[in-house]
Amino acid sequence: MFPTLQIGPLAIQTPGLILLLAFYVGLTLSERFLRSVSASSGPEAGRGLEGLFPPPEALYALVTDALLAGVVGGRLIYVARYPQAFLQNPLSLFSLNPGLFDLWGGLAVAAVVALIYGQRKGLAFWPTLDALTPFFATLAVGIALAHLASGGAFGKPTDLPWGVELWGARRHPSQVYEAVAALGILGYVWWWGRGVAPSGVLFLRFVALTAGARLFLEAFRGDSILLAGGLRLAQVLAWLVLAIALAGLEYLHQREETK
Fold this sequence. Notes:
The protein is mainly alpha-helical.
């Protein structure tokens, strides 16, 4: 694995660089997707049950504000949880190391800020999520590649010929499995998403596919959190997310039929 990229005297955190690139590429794809679908559907078709897609400028502003809030919030939550890690070296508060970051706390802060921004700007909920789906799908690829670079989210031991040596054992390249699955989902989103469909369907299909992939791929992970009876926490959560996404899809389809 390659956690750092050495350029002369400068050591760049490879996972962080990958995530920044994924952020840029994902936002670019969302903008192109937005322009393509808006042009093909037109204001009459609308593709939306609650309104048209947001303008690209609003999309950029929403994602940028949510990202900044998520980064700051995730770091501060990590500091609150592990203050001893920063007492001896306070400057590490500004480190680019993604390991000094509370992922779920940062995501929660980013989601709250995005919701507040969307409400204040009057952005339609489902069309906005649809427009952001290529961004989310690209970010999923970036997260898998960042894990590959850092050695995180590693696989369980295996004797298969494509296993990789990591942390003292030959393991499943679970990060590669996740990257391939995420690329497939991104391709599906990009290909299918341009068709006219009720607002929210694209996003919920992405969520359902991602949860389904997690159900399968979690079995190859070597760092899973286990519950009573050997159940994997990530798979339990994936089942829950999948059920919610499928219920949401059914609701949107029924609402469309009653129009």
